[in-house]
Amino acid sequence: xxxxxxxxxxxxxxxxxxxxxxxxxxxxxxxxxxxxxxxxxxxxxxxxxxxxxxxxxxxxxxxxxxxxxxxxxxxxxxxxxxxxxxxxxxxxxxxxxxxxxxxxxxxxxxxxxxxxxxxxxxxxxxxxxxxxxxxxxxxxxxxxxxxxxxxxxxxxxxxxxxxxxxxxxxxxxxxxxxxxxxxxxxxxxxxxxxxxxxxxxxxxxxxxxxxxxxxxxxxxxxxxxxxxxxxxxxxxxxxxxxxxxxxxxxxxxxxxxxxxxxxxxxxxxxxxxxxxxxxxxxxxxxxxxxxxxxxxxxxxxxxxxxxxxxxxxxxxxxxxxxxxxxxxxxxxxxxxxxxxxxxxxxxxxxxxxxxxxxxxxxxxxxxxxxxxxxxxxxxxxxxxxxxxxxxxxxxxxxxxxxxxxxxxxxxxxxxxxxxxxxxxxxxxxxxxxxxxxxxxxxxxxxxxxxxxxxxxxxxxxxxxxxxxxxxxxxxxxxxxxxxxxxxxxxxxxxxxxxxxxxxxxxxxxxxxxxxxxxxxxxxxxxxxxxxxxxxxxxxxxxxxxxxxxxxxxxxxxxxxxxxxxxxxxxxxxxxxxxxxxxxxxxxxxxxxxxxxxxxxxxxxxxxxxxxxxxxxxxxxxxxxxxxxxxxxxxxxxxxxxxxxxxxxxxxxxxxxxxxxxxxxxxxxxxxxxxxxxxxxxxxxxxxxxxxxxxxxxxxxxxxxxxxxxxxxxxxxxxxxxxxxxxxxxxxxxxxxxxxxxxxxxxxxxxxxxxxxxxxxxxxxxxxxxxxxxxxxxxxxxxxxxxxxxxxxxxxxxxxxxxxxxxxxxxxxxxxxxxxxxxxxxxxxxxxxxxxxxxxxxxxxxxxxxxxxxxxxxxxxxxxxxxxxxxxxxxxxxxxxx
Length: 881
Hints:
Strand order of the largest sheet: 7-6-11-10-9-8
Radius of gyration: 44 Å
Largest sheet: 6 strands, antiparallel
Protein name: SpoIIE family protein phosphatase
Strand content: 25-35%
Mean pLDDT: 79
Helix content: 25-40%
Pfam families: GAF, GAF_3, HATPase_c_2, PAS, SpoIIE
InterPro entries: Bact_Sigma-Reg, GAF, GAF-like_dom_sf, HATPase_C_sf, HATPase_dom, PAS, PAS-like_dom_sf, PAS_fold
Keywords: Hydrolase
Number of helices: 20
Low-confidence stretches: 1-12, 94-111, 147-151, 214-218, 280-295, 362-369, 563-569
Shape: elongated
């Protein structure tokens, strides 16, 4: 140890920066001097010697302002190799004990003289200089070759406010070889992620890591593993498929043979404090000249965090340390600047308070100290002055506003557990720091808002596309929930209202953890649904949280009452459900066409809050979802009506015709159509006589279906009145013409069938403009079974006639509409000849087999779906057994 006053310089003593301050002879000056030295050295990047410098400064300033009773001047000098701190007082005649003089330097048990003892123990060099009016004690602290001693320290926190862990903290140790594959996997890694070591060793870490892809950041996991040191957050996919957020510290090492590898320490993200390294500002490069220090860098440190959350968290930590508080918090203005949101805290239960909102205006229960600096010496005397600190044990607090161009953009506060800790002097110091960072925080906040707006726009565009892509009610409900969870909320429930006289019905429930869905659904089913209020915007609903807490309390009391029985799994499920819905729950009305058709309910886990931007985005989504849900309802109702009407136009089941096989295949073109312009019918006329018809109305869709219904019912009525085939069609023609502008022309093949005792069948047919019926004989020949005649619905006076056809055993009569013969593939058409070729190969087949073969031929003729209605009627007289 060098003697006092003797400087043995082994490093350059070029002074690169200086900072000075004067402190009055009062007790609080000691704390202010400590803060001055700490802030100065941290701003210079000399974090490694901050603790020793603060301790020595504290003792020397105490000697000056307490024991000597004079003011103290503190001068900090930065050199390339360390820092020199000089403390001067105005009591030079006091004798300073010297080593080797027989006088004691002091005792650690005595306050007087302890500062010199500490200088001798901690400083690289130290000494005392005298002038006629001043005595100056100085000490030199050299930067170590490598960091030693304390890097950072936090305040003492009561046990009740310490973070809660479900079990002991586990640190996964994973080693990655030069190829990126896992070479070591410890027991804690098995427990955290569910994979035994033999399942992961040898596999790339990229198979398990869920690496964040942030726009503008190109570093991937492969690049991060090659860095000498890396620290940050990502996710690991557990054995159950869910992503577990982790905080990781990577260190690149090499073994004795020079083989490189990366050692990764991983903990759960909410336990990051176990391995997280505080940011350390770099020292000034050697030989750098003295320069003006940016006040923002002095407070925040360099480099400053690039993201808003990181910047805010660094701000509250530095503010707490600057005022030696127990906690600190920062609130930012919402987008409309009418409320403040809690965005960063330290020393407080941040998970409970994050994104909690408070109004800006003053008043009862309001955040009254937002616009001006304020000091509350004892919150017990003024309860509720700072609602954020209720129930945290904090007694005194100082708050200052963040302002940009006169606008309130936020509020920064520091609190302590003891009363009377802060005065106006601390408020001014904190305001000075807040002014230095306000512009940077506002710039980062506006950047975040712009990113949120762009993300919200993309989200809403995608949501609109998805909702517009379906008219199915159940699928619309599922899409609504899946778009909100987990993007906007932790869980979601959709209530629907059938009509104004109906109560809300719980239609869909979703939670980001699938294991919580059943418990959540059971809970919501036991409570009254929210009121269907049409007022736009989100409103808070406390029903689920209250019911969950009551259920958990009852279950706990039941379990405790049966002390002889182990705790059942039921209480675990109940407590998990209570935690899942214990945060903020909001209800947004689903309003479509001026009617509330349901409610969209969004929830957060215990003590969590929604951001205002998220609620605004959810409101936009609810408007789009409501219209989509109502469209799906209208579509479903109209489809049900349409299908009911269409089914009424179809004939009932085919009658059993003695000794004749009858088969019909019908296909209506168009999605959702069961009846089109083509139709068929087979019905009994009288004993031993049966009528059959197959027709094609011009066009497709509902208009053609209307003529179809007219024709089918008129045919049955007229035939049963005893009219012949030509007379039936002539009267039907008149009925179609009577429809006026709504009339459509109709091609129709109508016939009457009489099964004979000898096994044959006699038919009388009239072919009014319809494709001719084809007769397949037993020998494979195919011929037309009727002649063409005028179609219906065009001319007033028709002269129709019927033709007699006899089907012998084994013969087939095939009747089709033009949807079969006019089937196209490009310029090719199946046509009459193609149909004849198909029918020729049907010798010996049943009527059903013939109809099926014709249908297959039509479908295979072209790749595209049929665009025209199609009907196939096959009748066959079976051969005698």
